[in-house]
Design goal:
five-stranded mixed beta sheet, 5 strands, globular, disordered N terminus
């Protein structure tokens, strides 16, 4: 999958995320290849996994799905362990609990919209208690999204 098929939302009280955002934005900006074209650069998910590993992340919590496939693209070749909860709210609270016990940032991978909404309580709790937590949500490119209410295209 070419970079740019995903939009990321990063939420964490940590300056290291600035580097990740810059690297991912640069990757997405130079991804102008047509769908299915060959390319020699990493996918956004692969860059993200590299950055997570470089910052000491060894466990992530999340539910794989069509909207998060790019986030998972680099996990198979990494040393990061993935734990699948039954619900996104569980992913949020697992990330929070992991961070509290391990002292490392807890990471949750969720879809935008209901997946991200389901993690809000865990995110608020982590923020209130100054627990290092990173919630990453992804969605496909805007032009690949289906119609929304009344036939209007997602904007």
């Amino acid at each position: 999958g070419a970079a740019g098929f995903i939009r990321l939302s990063l939420t964490v009280p940590d300056a290291h995320i600035d580097e990740a955002c810059r690297r991912i934005a640069a990757l997405a900006a130079r991804s102008t290849l047509p769908k299915g074209a060959a390319h020699d650069h990493e996918a956004v998910g692969e860059v993200l996994v590299d950055l997570l590993e470089a910052n000491g992340v060894d466990v992530v919590f999340g539910i794989p799905g069509v909207h998060t496939v790019e986030l998972y693209r680099g996990l198979a070749a990494s040393k990061i362990r993935h734990i699948t909860p039954r619900h996104e709210q569980g992913a949020g609270f697992m990330a929070d609990g992991y961070a509290r016990v391990s002292g490392k940032p807890g990471v949750a991978l969720v879809i935008t919209g209901p997946g991200l909404t389901n993690t809000i309580t865990a995110m608020a709790q982590a923020r209130q208690d100054s627990v290092p937590m990173l919630v990453i949500s992804g969605v496909n490119r805007r032009d690949s999204l289906g119609p929304v209410l009344n036939g209007a295209w997602a904007a």
